[in-house]
User: What shape does this take?
Amino acid sequence: MKTIKKIFTVISIAVLFVFAGCKSTKVDRVDPDKKVDLSGYWNDTDVRIVAQELIDSCLSSNAVKSFPSAHKGKAPVVIVGSFRNLSDEHIDTEIVTKQLEAALINSGKVDFVSAASEREEIRAERLDQQENSSEETAKALRNETGADFMLQGSIKTIIDSLDNKSTRTYYVTAELVDIETNKKLWMESNSSIKKVITRSKNKF
Assistant: This one.
């Protein structure tokens, strides 16, 4: 009987060690610019690649390049509108729009104004200044800069699969629209993100 108890105790300890090992966590810090693809789904690397390629193409378009010469050297004022997620997975489009905004602003080729969701907070601050700030420092009302162009678009996916292998192709479409006339001045559908994913056939 004692022998059985000893065997049971040893087995119990071994099982505990196995479960403890399964729950262990390892974290490795890597360079934020390093390409890391674990699941095959949309990730931060894809955002950076697509945003930079789209903005480079947009800024080299005739609509942007010819604007200063037609407006006394004034750079076009751009606002980023909505980017719709029409893919089969969850994508935080706000991250996409912020990357596009950063690429536009840092280019130095356009002026930029805040998005609609951000303007309300700024307007509230201006109104508060009329009541609580000195006359010398309070910012004037109705003196906002109107945008000339709006950049908007969408994200879609095309999936092809066979057995344990699949491909995911992301199409990010962007359009530059003249706000006054609604004319589409530039458009591009970027499909530079294509992934081949192989899943293990083993199931436990």
